[in-house]
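Lab notebook, bench 4. The sequencing result for the construct came back, and we need a structural model before the next group meeting so we can plan mutations. Quick request posted to the team channel:

Model the 3D structure of this chain.
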Amino acid sequence: QMRLVESGGGLVQTGGSLRLSCGTSGRTLSVYVMGWFRQVPGKEREFVGGITRTGDSTYYGNSVKDRFIISRDNAKNTVDLQMNSLKPEDTAAYYCVAAVVRPRDGNWESASSYDYWGQGTQVTVSA
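Done. Here's the predicted structure in token form:
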């Protein structure tokens, strides 16, 4: 069982930036399609972004497009989420995810496309 570990969450003011990172031990992330979801208590998980194994393609949820950037460094075995121009509505727990099989077009936003989930890191954006 692969264990994904997120880091980098915290409190930031509106308009600020944060960088989340996801790593693991004992496994090579390069064989997985990676992504990020977020969730607010009482609401469904929301797709934030996804990245292919080589990093040649990225996908984003509509609410974060043009503000967030997902990237990966397979040599370092990490996947990052750079979050810019943060808004209070970005407040959520952010989860790193991994998929064995690349989601089909249109399925990147489906939580069921991903096989492994981290424990989450909290991001809070103050007004």
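The mean pLDDT is 96.
Will bring this to the meeting.
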